[in-house]
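Field reference: "sequence" (input) and "structure" (output). Example, Poly [ADP-ribose] polymerase:
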Amino acid sequence: MASNPIRKVIVKNLPNEWTSDHLENFLEVVTSLMMKANCIQTFCDVRHAALLTLEEPVSEDSVHEANQDLVHLPFNEQTLALEAVTESTCSIVVHFTDLNLSDDLVFYYFANPRRSGCGDAEVERCEMHPELSLAVVHFTLPEAVDGVLAKEAHNIKKDSEVVKVEPWYGQFHRPLLEELLKKTCSPAKPPVPPKPSVPPPQQKETIPKTFASHSTPPQEKPPLLPKPDLSERPSPFKAPGEYSSEKPAQEDPEVKSLREELEKLRLDRRKVESEEALKAQEELERLKRENEKLKTMVTLRLIVPSYQLRLLRKFAGCCEGCQVTLLEQEEVALFSGPTEECEQAMTQLMKQVQGLADDSLTVPDATLMLLETTKGRQYLKDMMQKHPNCSAKVQNSCVVCAALKEEDLRAFKEEFESAILTKTCTVSFKVSLLPQFQNLKIKLEQDYLVLMTLPSGNSNDLHLDGLASDVELAAIEVEQFSEKNRPEKTMFEIDGAMQANACRKWFSKELDEVKQIIRQNGDIHHETTEDGYILEFECRLDVAEDVMDKLSYIKDNIVSINVDLNKEFPLYSERALVVNGLHRMGVKKFCSHLKDALLQQDVDSLGDFTLPAKYSLPRLSLGGRKSGKEEAPRGSHRESKSHHRSSGGRGRRHTGQRYSSRPSSGQQPSVPCTYTFGNTSITLKTGDITAEPVQAAVNVVGRDLKLTGTALGSAFLKKNPTLAQLLQANSLAAPQQDKGCHLLKTPLARSGLPMSMLYHAVLNKMPQNAVKKAVKQLVHQCLMLAMQQGYTSIAFPPLGVGRRFGYGRYTVANAMVAVFQEFLQTYPNGMQNITIVVYDSSVVGRFAEVFKQTFGGGPQAVSAPAAAAVQLDYGPDLFSEDYFPQDAFPGENLALDDVLQDELPISMPTPPVTSDEENNDRASSDNNDSDVQLEEEEDDEVPDLSEDPKGRFEALICTANAEDCQEVIDVLLKELKTIFLWHETLRDQDVDTFRKLGTFVIQDISQKALTTNVHLSLSQKGLRLCGQKDSVHELLSMIRDKMFNHVQQQSKKESQRSDKLELPRYWKLCQKEKSGTVSYEKALDRWRKQVPGLIPVSAEETKAVLKLVESTWEANKAGAGKDARNLAHTSLQVTKVERLENPELWRDYCHKRANLLSKLQSRHATKAQCTPVENLPNSRGPLQTTANIARKSPLSRDIHPEVNEHYLFHGTKTATLLKIYEQGLDFRVASAKTMLGRGVYAAESSTKADQYTDPKQARTSGHQLTMILVRMLLGEPFIHTDPNPSAFTRPPCMKCSQKECACTSARLFDSVIDDSNRIFREFVVYEQNGCYPEYFITYIRK
């Protein structure tokens, strides 16, 4: 069983010198008990014991454990001890200073609850100890202590001091009280003489803090009172009765007053208690009497209908022997009283009920519902008041009534039946159209005693049931209301599907509100949003006008912007890119992107486009070839011979005319055109092959046999939806075919198509060199099958020239016409009519040119040769999967978007027909190093198609704010240009490399451009690629890959020519060599014979160098910087330009350049060149020297921009020129204090190079100085931006950019560029063969 919590602890055996701080600190350190602050209680002057109040209650075991910890701690031969206070207190200690205070006065004061606050408790006894100035008062209840202590002050005696009151704990106070009483009664001890000792030094006596409220120096206290005679002293412990019986001779007035007041309180209390006891006794006796009475009483129940009880109300007052209660609501009669009397009263009531006249009235359901309403019940009530001898009630499906007499009942029935009326009102429109009828119903039912029933379904009848007079009045109001609220039919319309979509999207909330208004006042008949927004509704005229105002507001706030994009993109190339791009991307996708872009401008919009057919992009112009000797003349013998051979001897010499995807009217015959070949007519026309009146036709499908996979198959399927099932069935019934190209046939009996047989050419993607043979075999099979089945007319489409298969148009046209010739030569009467139906004008142009070349200048009769057995040989089996594996073709990369695949996209002076010899020439030309001459295109040459014959090109944009129109147009044009006219430019240096790729490599690139909708154009700025960003980057990546492959081939060639030294062709040393290469020994011998080794340059070169010096001279920086000390000139005058032709230095330089070219393969797996300087992070931009060298300048010869080879200026003193002639620029002789370490320094500005041509301390003016224009190989440069540079011994690591590192398998940069925001940018290489001093420029300062 758990003990009570301990809140107070007694500490015993305390040393006298201890203070409260000693005790508190000691107990906290030695034990785990925590005391409340300032809660240490002592008793009188006793210091060896104290009463402590704990911070938190603890168990008795915890106090016991703490006591055990103190057992072995001696203090002045005493041991501290702890004792738990377990008892509660019912007593108090009263400290007083008035010695005249008697025990009676104390007793009566604390016994009075009004003065002491003791409550209902009584004083048990009072102990007086005047010698100790205290008294102990004992109460009967512990709550009295709390009440006494709660009172602020206690004045026992008037005009006396306030006494001090504290709780009494017997465990603590009783032993101490006895100890004090013993000390008071014992005689005083004589003083003990002090021991002799050395007197201590005079110190100020300190008085320790004790548990008492104040302390005095220890001294012998005089007795407080003389010793009383204990034998004669009365006992302090008195019973309460003793104080009332023993009265002194002269009683203190205050004691008397207190005693009388206490007796009065006790008398009042006894009087109240006696009165309450008397009342309780009387109530008990009353309850006993009632109980006895109830034992002889009964209560009987009789069920009687309420309408009958209402007539028998007088019966309750006639019964005297018992109490009768009629409860009409519960339909019960209660009889209370003696049993016999109650039974007699019940019998009498039953007889009266049986004597009533009773009947029921059958009425309509609506009338019953009406009578059950509040007004109906009131009507029945009024009727019963009018007929007091009658009563009625609605029960189940009728009205039951009763009366005292038959005559009364008959009169009540007649009046009731005549007062009820049912009437039907008909309106001329559907009541459901007007929800206000519901409000009218509520109003009429509130005003009149009627029930209005609204019609359901298609009925227009209203039913009114109720009191006849009220029904007539309600019918009049219904007619007036229907006439006033007759609905009118109205229609609202917004033209255009996009405007309708905008209406639903932007004004959906307003539309919902309008439709809610209509439904509340009428009905919505029709709502459609297909080609526009149409809303047909019917409602009241005033509501319809309000609704139309709201709808007109919505319509007025939908602003439509029609942008004519033909005028915005007048250039053919730009319009073609935008139109084709929209076709490829999809109008919905672009409109979604445009919407997001406008939302960023806080403009909500919807858009759509009217697109024309796809355009054919303008192609890059290509001139002739430039050989090593001289430019080959156009129309050479080889070209003429090849053309003559391919055209059967009827060819003519081509003199460099252009071929384009838009054939001229002079070359193309009119379409349709018919050629007669023997007994057969061959017709070329445009139109719909599905409507061609022939016996057999040819369709094109893929290997998946899905007609929807091709445009032609979709056209046939649209005419005959069952064609797909027929094709699948014929495919299963046909012999097992391989996975290559083959034919399937489908009979067309009663199919809705004009032909009887349809041949399906199952095609597959294949290399272009195999297309011709495959098409020949397919066309030949179609002709043979048609002839065997007895058909005399057949129609062909251009096989495979569409988007899916991408066969070349020229190739297909040549193949088909060739098969027609061979077939008709073998079978002159095999066919009467062969028709080629073409759907695209550009394809018609290809076929028309082939027809013209094959059959002559115009439609005519061509005599067929005599019939002969001709064996058609198409080579190997082209239609097997083994010959064309599926994974050999990169998917859609070979497909064309209505663009000629094997047609030359670059104008070339070669005929469009490809022969075997020409294929060999093409293969050899891919490895030809001669430059291709690209002709620059001018915008003036591009046709301005402001009125495009292809169709309208418009954008329709809808917005909700007219102020946003211009912003919408600006964003539209910006997004079109950003997405479809993204452009990248291949700089001049890269164009030079591009020229070296070869004709047919450029042809493949141009063909890829047409496929991906990218326009290539050549201008003075370089090769410009324009189109969609991804396509431009893809094509640019392809170009760089081709250039990279070319660089690899060049590096291989240079490595193979290690025994030969290839000098620049403009050098004097190789002017006698036709090939431009000379043996190293021979070149070195020629060099040594030249004195001093410098060669005067031509006037063209001098002009180019002079222009470069002037364009890079910066007069405002001529004297800037510490290296320009003592310089005051503002310009230079070049007097002479010479060239250094040192074969030894050139060989080392070429080896370094070849090494950089070979590193490109390992350093850049997909890049064809090093990173251009302008593209490096933190770079200022392109080099000034390179930027100021024109593309056709002599200084652009033999420059390799792919390895960052540039011309730069180097300044040196005249004394070092002879060493430079022979040894070149040696980085080892550079000063160790240079900014970026020992290296060869160069600058892009001639101003910077001029600062180093003479000593800083001895500047010269008017004397000739020399600066050098050097070739420098920067390779992959490192951009140095630290304003406090550190000296390099070599370029830093490309991985960590540190000059000293522990990186493994890491390459180094090839050069260092100081671009740290200094006045001039400097370029440094750390190898001697990294630069070649080519031009020596002699000048004077001015």
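Residues 27 and 1167 are 87 Å apart (CA to CA).
The mean pLDDT is 75.
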